[in-house]
Backbone:
């Protein structure tokens, strides 16, 4: 199950969403991340706890994209979160 790491929150700023560290995590270099609406949607699902296999179908249901696009987008998004060490698996 995927889950966001504690110490990170998401804030909406105009049309963008920003992930930032709070508390001691605020001092981690390279942990601020800007997301679009679908990225924020995925972040919120992960923050609640979700199986990786359920992310792409959720994106298809919410935004009506095709499965291949959703799977590719989820894969790239998770790669970024893993590189920045923002999720627990």
Residues:
């Amino acid at each position: 199950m995927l889950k966001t790491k504690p110490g990170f929150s998401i804030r909406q700023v105009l049309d963008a969403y920003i992930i930032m560290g709070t508390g001691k995590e605020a001092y981690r270099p390279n942990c601020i991340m800007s997301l679009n609406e679908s990225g924020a949607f995925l972040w919120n699902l992960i923050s609640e706890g979700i199986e990786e296999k359920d992310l792409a179908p959720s994106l298809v249901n919410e935004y009506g994209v095709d499965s291949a696009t959703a799977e590719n987008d989820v894969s790239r998004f998770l790669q970024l979160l893993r590189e920045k060490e923002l999720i627990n698996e």
About this structure: The chain has a mean pLDDT of 92.
